[in-house]
Amino acid sequence: MVGAGEPGGGLVGLNQPPAIRFESVSFAYPDGRQVFDGLDLTVPAGASLAIVGANGAGKTTLVKLLARLYEPTSGRILVDGVDVRELDLASWRQQLAVIFQDFVRYELGTTENVGFGCVSRMDDSDALRSAARRAGSLAVIEELPRGWDTVLARGYTGGADLSGGEWQRVALARALFAVDGGAGILALDEPTANLDVRAEAELFEHLLQVVSPGAGEPDRRPVTTLLISHRFSTVRRADRICVLDAGRVVEEGTHDELVRAAGLYARMFSLQASRFDG
Ligand SMILES: Nc1ncnc2c1ncn2[C@@H]1O[C@H](COP(=O)(O)OP(=O)(O)OP(=O)(O)O)[C@@H](O)[C@H]1O
Ligand SMILES: [Mg+2]
């Protein structure tokens, strides 16, 4: 939810990244469209799980259920063993740094567009700059006509619009700012769809640094990461990958395991690889 969050959140025991478990989750949208039917899925604490599947397989819906924008028709979503329905909604959303596919572009200043990731730290300009730097948006922001005070929309004095890829990096900075502020879960729904392949590779390197603390940045905490992407160059870097099809997880493993299994993942991967070769 890229919401406000004090370090540590507000949920007991979530100073460490939590484990997430979807347990026999079924879900139909209010119009009757059945998306999941007995979905089982686990993300170990601090691990990254990539989710792949065809358009309409339910990847975005899965994150919406996690964020409690909808409730499962049956089954449960557990966070460190606790049903998310039992958690206080506001504190739960502080634990989630989410960028949805149709992420929000606030017609407000750059400070707000990044700072809304953790409202209570929004006046910490060093922290804002750090998140923007790791998302690859710092240079763009600081070259705007009014820097961090630039309204990100045309039609305002000194306002400016950004390209799709630049907006995406601003949204990523917002999510990283939420993680810095204490969110233990990072969910990225096609975070790099507007970036070219090289930019995406660079950005994902940065992301990995965020979620696995490096020697130089001991205060970076690991987070539990859900990553949705159609790009296998990104997907393959996740600790584990699961393939959604017809409302269920049909394959799960590391990239190498799934390629060896010669199933749906392997077919999708070789299709994309051959497209890039050609
Ligand atoms: N608000 C909604 N009401 C009804 N049906 C919906 C709604 N949102 C999504 N759906 C349907 O639910 C199914 C899963 O959609 P979802 O957006 O989760 O797929 P996805 O895997 O994220 O696809 P994509 O790769 O295109 O992003 C689709 O059939 C979609 O048409
Ligand atoms: Mg989607």
Structure description:
By secondary structure, this protein is an alpha/beta fold. It has one domain: Rossmann fold (3-Layer(aba) Sandwich). It contains ten helices and ten strands. It has a six-stranded mixed sheet. A four-stranded antiparallel sheet has the order 2-1-4-5, covered by helices on one side. A hairpin with a 2-residue loop joins strand 4 (74-79) and strand 5 (82-83). The radius of gyration is 19 Å and the shape is globular. Magnesium ion is lined by residues 59-60, 101, 189.
The unreliable regions are 2-14
Q: Estimate the strand proportion.
A: 15-25%
Tell me which ligands are bound.
adenosine-5'-triphosphate, magnesium ion
The total count of helices amounts to: 10
What fraction, in percent, of the residue positions are helical? 25-40%
Give the overall average pLDDT. 86
Distance between the termini: 39 Å
The string of secondary-structure elements, in order, is EEEHEEHEHHHHEHEHEEHH
Cα Rg: 19 Å
Describe this protein with a few key phrases:
binds adenosine-5'-triphosphate, binds magnesium ion, single chain, 278 residues, alpha/beta, disordered N terminus, globular, six-stranded mixed β-sheet, 10 helices, 10 strands, four-stranded antiparallel β-sheet, Rossmann fold
Strand and helix map with partners:
Layout: E1 20-28, E2 34-43, E3 48-52, H1 59-66, E4 74-79, E5 82-83, H2 89-94, E6 96-99, H3 110-115, H4 125-135, H5 138-142, H6 164-180, E7 185-189, H7 197-211, E8 224-228, H8 232-235, E9 240-245, E10 248-253, H9 255-261, H10 264-277
Parallel strand pairs: 3-8, 3-9, 6-7, 7-8
Antiparallel strand pairs: 1-2, 1-4, 4-5, 9-10
Helix pairs in contact: 4-6, 9-10
The structure holds adenosine-5'-triphosphate and magnesium ion.
Magnesium ion binds next to α1.
